[in-house]
Amino acid sequence: MKIVTLLENTSGRPVLAAARGLSLYVEAAGRKVLFDMGPDASFLGNARALGIDPAAVDTAVLSHGHSDHGGGLAAFCECNRRAKIYLRREALGAYYAVLPGQEPNYIGLPETGALAERFSFTGDREDLGDGLTLFSDVEDDKYLRAAAPKLQEKIGEGFRPDGFAHEQHLLAEENGRAALLIGCGHSGVVNILRAAKRHLGRLPDVVFGGFHLFELAPGAPEAEALLRATAEELRQGSTIYYTGHCTGDWAYGRLKEALGDRLRPMDCGASAEL
User: Fold this and answer.
1) Full set of structural domains in the chain with CATH
2) What distance in Å separates the CA atoms of residue 245 and residue 9, rounded to the nearest whole number?
3) Residue 42 belongs to what H/E stretch?
């Protein structure tokens, strides 16, 4: 099994473009899987620079309905005419960043009507075959996730807090090894890990994804408490964590202190083989 970061906020390689978003690639059990498509078509050029052919992808997954993960959806469908795209039906909702005194900023997916025939909507748990499983049945312990009050869904003429029913996660298993792919981890990485453990019967060997901790206030008591609880949980077992995107530098540094070499950057081109 191989996992590669096609696109992320940062890149240490001149040939790989960086953009605020995420796109991951997985090869496992003969399957070629694209997990998220970043904010635009940049991930396609990066894939080719890394020797990966986007046209050969047989399965595509959208982790949730935000444009920094699905903005490149149309570009992918243009270069790949065959892969099904697995997403939650709720991912097609109207999602906004809403801040006091500012106009609501649309952060949902671009218009997808022309792509609808490629979509396959997922339930709480979907077996895609060959050791690939999508799940969204994450129990919400609000003390183990960062609050995100600005993220809201537009319903009619009003807004309500985003409950992240549009978010899903991927487990890939091959030869007794398992990887967990997370988009932004709005539900909390610990909550998601617990759900993954429930499905696997154990912790995954490697995790790639954002932990959505970037808006924590450094030094604030609630931020310190969340990071302590997160670090304590992540220290269990021997899982290797590749993270970035929405994790944030301060949170990454604090978790690095606790996890050492088990926490690694998920920048463009980062990869793991199991």
Assistant:
1) 2-273 (3.60.15.10)
2) 6
3) helix 42-49
